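lol ok so funny story. i was supposed to be doing the assay writeup but got distracted and ended up predicting the structure for this chain instead. priorities right. anyway since i did it might as well share w the group, maybe its usefull for someone
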Amino acid sequence: MTKTELKEAKERYFMLSKMIKDSTSKSLENETVDQQEHRKKHLLKPENYVEFFDYYFGVNSGMPLADAPSSKFHQASYEKVFHDNKIRQFRQWFRGAAKSIHTNVGNILHLKENDELFFAVLIGANEGLSKILLSDLQMHLESNERIIKDFGSQLSYGNWADGEFQTKDGRFFKALGLNQPFRGLRFGQYRPDFASVDDCEDRDRAKNPVMIRKYGEKITGDLKKAFHKQRGRLIIPNNYIVKDGLIDFLTDKFKESSHYDLSKVDLATKNITKENCRKLTNWKPSWDERYSREDVINIVEDDDFYTSQREDFNNPVEEGKLFKADTIIHTRIAENEVFDGLLDHWDLSYTGTGDYKAGVLLGIKGIKLFVLEVFCQKCEINSAMEVRYKWFKKYLKRGYNMMGFFDATAAQQAVYTPIILQSAEDNKCPNIPMPMHQDGDKHNRIAAGIGNALFRKILFWDETLKERSDDYELFMKLILAFEKGIATGDDPADTLERAITLAQTFFGYSTEENNSSTKPLIGKQKKKRRV
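and the output, tada:
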């Protein structure tokens, strides 16, 4: 934090402290000692947390900082925190859901006055931001007359501007930037028993796996191992704005723990797309005490599609370089859907250190193409083919025989074919994909082939892929990341384009009877009634 930034922060602190002191002192009510104790005992029960928050910090406190009562999700998430003293809770709440004030002020005071917190660490993206988080807490402990009346004068020594302070009841609070050391944290006999990792996700940093691992392991290792033996609550208030970032790293490390908890709250409970955002009238705001349906519409329409999805709906879609996320059409495909045929294509290339094995299965129905299965892994050819043969057996039961292809030059064909044949024998599958290599500018071919299908709105994705396919998310991510000149990661786009082009070549894609140039090379069979 520069001297100028520190000066501005101190001026902000002074101004808000005065406002908090004035407004809370005016809102104090006359009551007997017994009435006060009864009220405090009631508010300190975990099931009454939102009443506690609204009394000291929210709409009932007399302060203009809050404009609506706290919500059910504020209550539900905190009760889990209170009852699990080793919780690892991810608060993926939409922008404007009061993540920081609840986590770093309301939760902390409630835990502290219930003797559940003795040493709290507030972690920001950098040292300066972490001190701002600490200043919000000290501001209330020092100036909020409602807190002082009920729990006494708070501050003992230290200052948020120095990164730490202690209260008169011996509790210690420390600010740390994500890039500062976490090891060996201790205050007297106390080790940290509460930590908040507040808004530390960064979209640029997510592009650097080395940095993600470095900071992620500081939290899962240095910080977690510094926790108190009996208590160690970790809260991560950060909406889900990017894939493969810090949130994904921490989720992967903690998701198998019995203390893992995900509190995911979107702006509204209805899924929003760019096309239907003005048509929906049945949105249900998640914080309906504060937001109306009209508010939701205004918030969504005030941002571009991608920003709104990231910030308001915890959906970190990126605007594609060439293919746009809002042109991807998902649809539900019936179990007994009748297709003209099935075709799969595989890119099994070994060139380049970052290459994936990629495969896609299309269902063809007239001019429409349906993505039924996807594959995208760094693995051996045998593993990819095992998955292919599972697809074959799955759809054979539905009466379909797949037409399959894989990309290979003559030299590659000599290497791949024996492996593919052996894998077919091992899996007892008579259906063998055929080699077919396409020369020319690959990136221009992909741009034209997929771009044309998206523009004409003839490519559809089975919406169940999102839940049942482990590879779908990566496959789609690499499709949207595709751009001309990309060195690695073009395998899904390459195999999808080949599948689209081959499907249109062999099955035809025109409904005009007199259009001989686009008649299918494989004759369409008469439709049989499917039972």
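The chain has three domains: 3-265, 267-317, 326-518. The longest strand covers residues 368-377.
back to the writeup now i swear
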